[in-house]
Amino acid sequence: MADLIKATKKIHSFQHDNLKNHLANLEAKFEGVNQSSVQVLCSSQGIDDTLFSSAIILKNAVGQINVIIHAVGILLLLPNILKKGEIIESLSLGAGNTGKQFDLETN
Known about the structure:
By secondary structure, the protein is mostly helical. The chain is built from five helices and two strands, in the order αααααββ. It has a two-stranded antiparallel ribbon with strand order 1-2.
């Protein structure tokens, strides 16, 4: 969890207030820069292996967010969907093809 928090802070710091604008500024700064100056400029802008690793950590953490939204959404809605006495016979919480015809089947 600590790695995820550190990664999130690193990415947030890199984005500044607006990622699109920050990238446009970087594009302008790197124009005309030669090979020997690229590393110095990257370092001065906080562009390093830690930033790259942070992006990978964050992507891996949120890569399954749609599955989490699907599962939690179904579970939170169950009390509103089920009628009194109705029993769950089959439940598919994973988004996508789980081999089940429906996300929820009841008696």
